[in-house]
Amino acid sequence: MQKLEVFGAKKLKGQIKISGSKNASLPIIAATLLSNKKIILKELPKVRDIETMLSLLKSLGSQIKFNKDGTEIDNSKQKKKFASYNLVKTMRAGILVLGPLLAKFGSAKVSLPGGCAIGSRPIDIHLKAFSKLGVRYKIDQGYVIANAPKGLKGNKIHFSKVSVGATENLIIAATLAKGTTLLSNCAIEPEILDLVNFLKKLGCKIKWISKRTIEIIGVNKLKEISYSVMFDRIEVGTYLVAAAITQGNLMIKNVKPEIIRTEIDLLKKTGAKITTKKNEIKIIGSKKIKSMKLKTAPYPGFPTDLQAQIMVLLCKANNNSIIQENIFENRFMHVAELNRMGAKISIQGNKALITGNTNFAPAELMATDLRASVSLILAALTANGKSTINRIYHLDRGYENIEKKLKKVGAKINRIKNG
C-alpha cells in the first residue's frame, strides 16, 4: 500500500500540461467494441481506471498494443460477451460495455458496476432505455443478463433524469440499431460531445437536433480511424484550485478554456486573477479569498467532481460559505478528514456549511474516494508541516503523475511505499 507525504506552505509556480480526459476516454474505449477494425486512441491518460477498462476489453477478446502513435485496439477477433465482476467492481464505467456488446451481438452478461462509494448510482435509467430498443434483461447474482432476440431497433427514448452514463451507453448502442433513435433529456457534458465526435469519425450517423436531444441513424459499416481524446477538465480545475489556495502563479497548458468557463468564472469570484488564451490558462492566487454559495449541477453547471476541491478553497475564504451537492447523495466523505485538519464544516442534508478563515494543520489522513483524495492534497499544501495521505490508490484511478506535476511547480510531495 502506498501513501503520499505532503510538506505544505509553499506557493506553486510554473507550468502544468494537462493529460487526456479519463471521463472521455472510458466511454470511447468501450465504444471501440462496436468496430472490427483497428482503432488508435491518442492522449489516453496513464491512470488506473484506463488500465482497468483496457483489461476488461482484453478479457472480451480485444487485442491491444501500445506504440508511439497511441493505443491500438483491434477487435477483429473479439467474440466474448461476458464482463466479469473482478474487472468491473473497481469502476463505474464498466457498465458502458453493455451498449456496444448488445449492439454488436444482441446479447451480453455484464456485472453491476462498482467504483467510489459516493452514492448508489443505480443503472435503472440505462436498463429502462435499453428495453425501449428491444432488449430483455434480468438481474441475477449481481449480473445484468440482457438480450435482444431481434436485434436493437431504433425508438424514441426520454431519460427520466439527466444521466451521463445512460446517455453514453444509449448513444453507443443506438449507432448500430436498425432505424432511427431519438434520445431526449440527454446529458451534454463535454466528454459526451467528445464521444459523439469519435463515433461520427468512426462512421456513425449522429446529430444534435436541440440542446439535449440527439438523433442517431443506425449504420452497418464502420471505418478504421485514429482519434485524440480531449483534455481532462477536472484535472484543470484541480490545478486551478491548487494555484488559488497557495497564492500561486500557474500556467495551465493543453486546454480549451471555453469548456470550463463556469469553473473559471467561479474562481474569479473568489478573488483569483485568471487570463486565458487559445490553449492555456494563467492563474494567480489572491491573498484574500472570497466566500460564496454554490450548487453542483449537470454541465454547464458546476461539476460534482470539483466539489471537494473547491470546498478546501472556501475553508480559507474570508467568511462562511455553503455548497449544495445535487448530484450524489454521499459525496461529503472528505469533510471528516478536513475537519481533522482544523476545518469547521458541518453537513445539513445535501448542504455543507463551511466556516471561513481556516488554517489547516498537518495530519495523518485517509482517502475515501478519487476526488476526496485530491482535496486532502490541496489542504495539505497549505498546512505548515508534514501531512501523510493513505489509501492513495483512489487518487491513482484518475490523476496521471500528480506528485510529479506538483513537484515540477514547487510542491514538496513524495510517494512512499509502505513496508
Describe the structure.
The chain is an alpha/beta fold and 419 residues long. It folds into two domains: 2-19 and 231-417, Enolpyruvate transferase domain (UDP-n-acetylglucosamine1-carboxyvinyl-transferase, Chain), CATH 3.65.10.10; 22-228, Alpha-beta prism (UDP-n-acetylglucosamine1-carboxyvinyl-transferase, Chain), CATH 3.65.10. The protein contains 14 helices and 24 strands. The strands form six sheets. It has a four-stranded mixed sheet, with helices on one face. Strands 2-15-17-16 form a four-stranded mixed sheet. A four-stranded mixed sheet has the order 4-5-3-14, with helices on one face. The longest helix has 13 residues, at 190-202. The model is unreliable at 115-120 (pLDDT under 50).
Strand % is: 25-35%
The stretches of 5 or more residues where confidence is low (pLDDT under 50) are: 115-120
Number of self-contained structural domains: 2
Count of discrete alpha- or pi-helical segments spanning 4 or more residues: 14
Output the strand order for the largest sheet.
Answer: 22-23-1-24
| Highest-level CATH class of the largest domain | Alpha Beta
Structural class: alpha/beta
Name the CATH superfamily classification of the largest domain: Enolpyruvate transferase domain
Shape: globular
CATH architecture annotation name of the largest domain: Alpha-beta prism
Say how many strands there are.
Answer: 24
The CATH topology name of the largest domain reads UDP-n-acetylglucosamine1-carboxyvinyl-transferase, Chain
Estimate the mean pLDDT confidence: 94
Q: What value does the Rg take, in angstroms?
A: 22 Å
Q: What's the N-to-C terminus distance? A: 8 Å
Classify the helix fraction into a percent range.
25-40%
Main sheet?
4 strands, mixed
